[in-house]
Amino acid sequence: MIDNPEIAKALKISTEPEDIGDVYMVRKQSEYTPGERANVKIQGYDYLSQKLMKRSEIESDKSKFMSKVLGFAFNAPIVINDGRQFISALQMFRGVAFVVYCDKAHDQYDKVLETMVQCRKKMPLEIKADAGGEVDPNQGENVIFILTTSPDLLYYKFEEPEKGPQAIVMPIGNSIDTFEKYLPKLKVLDGLKLKDWLEKAQDIHNTIEAMKPSDDSDGQSDENKREVMKSWFNKDRFTIETKYYTANTKRLLNPNRMKAFIEEC
């Protein structure tokens, strides 16, 4: 909130009575703002100042305003190097994840980032939020761009980081039943004939449903047993998320080819 007209003027914010309450975005010019001309100087650095919405528009449709603000936050590659933060981002944004790995010391890092920024502009997000800023986590075909310098993001790993820039596309919700696709001729599983294993899995499922906490416990140990049995004797453990991988630098250093790869996936 600015109440000093001199500061407002320096930041290219209108002080006209009809513009009071309008919202602006002021951000430093960087690789995330290619092609946009700086119009403000702060401490000698170039900044961009642009009006997001008029007060009257915000008052009439707060959800539109929140969607626009969040669009600015997500409409650029997000740099994540921590596995827990990465998993949190995927849980918060259940759409399509485009994840690029590149060592910061690699001579193509800056070019990879620049390409992601350009490609992001070619694939703008359409985030919907309510008036309180709550975002629907199910984002469908919206694509979140993530750049990482870590080859290990907990459950997601780039096995050969020495290869240079690499990427995976993960359409959230798309999965492969490896049991059916890659193991159709499987005869034995966990030391049991497949037919017997499937029957045992069904018997255990029925047993789990009928289990009740014992009288001498708070039910926690029984619950743990249920979870272990349920996860092991479960055909769903052979279902994995679909991931599309590339280490093709022609795709990762050209925004049009990068866009085509994502759309193809």
Give a written overview of the molecule:
Helix content is 37%, strand content 23%. The protein is an alpha+beta fold. It folds into 3 domains: 1-60, no CATH class; 61-174 and 242-264, Glutaredoxin (3-Layer(aba) Sandwich); 179-239, no CATH class. Helix 5 packs across helix 10 (255-264).
In short:
This protein is of the alpha+beta class and 265 residues long.
Which helices and strands, and how do they pair?
Blueprint: H1 5-10, E1 23-28, E2 40-42, E3 45-53, H2 55-60, H3 62-74, E4 78-79, H4 83-92, E5 94-101, H5 109-122, E6 138-148, E7 152-153, E8 156-157, E9 166-171, E10 175-177, H6 178-181, E11 188-189, E12 192-193, H7 194-210, H8 220-232, E13 239-241, E14 244-246, H9 249-252, H10 255-264
Parallel strand pairs: 4-6, 5-6
Antiparallel strand pairs: 1-3, 2-3, 5-9, 7-8, 9-14, 10-13, 11-12
Helix pairs in contact: 5-10
Element string (H = helix, E = strand): HEEEHHEHEHEEEEEHEEHHEEHH
Number of domains: 3
Largest sheet: 5 strands, mixed
- Quaternary form: single chain
